[in-house]
Amino acid sequence: MPRPAYERGMTRHPLDVVPSGLRGSERSVAVPPAARPAVAALVSSWEFKRRAGFEVPGERPSPGVEGTLAKRLLGIRFAEPVRVVWAEASGFGYETRPGHPIYGEESLVLGDDGVFTARSVSRPATWKWRLLTPVLRMLQHRVFGSYIRIVEDEIRRATAATEDR
Q: Which domains does the chain carry?
């Protein structure tokens, strides 16, 4: 299946236009000022993906870094090769590499406005994975839900710490 072209790094910003053949996904949650340092630390490292249940690369996300994310489902380990396309203090974005079940890009960003956003543009990587499109979308939706729960946990921790003072 030919790979549709998309602008690398496009998930760094709101998805105004999604390239033909790809599906855009976005989930956001406002982060109060007290929780922003903790959330910023998470989104600038692989720790965020680790808390979402993935095995993560040992090297810190920085542009050009390649690694493998992995997750077990039903006892099967799915390895997902990735390459970081951009990284900064407010988050990072990575593209999938050959061998990943999904073709596209995902980012985790804490915006200047204090809103955490997970974004992706993607489609199944091969015709074999295309047969499992509904399953892949459901799994992606669940992972994005995990991201929101991770941020909400940090918000609760920060709120509790503020109230304890």
A: 22-164 (3.30.530.20)
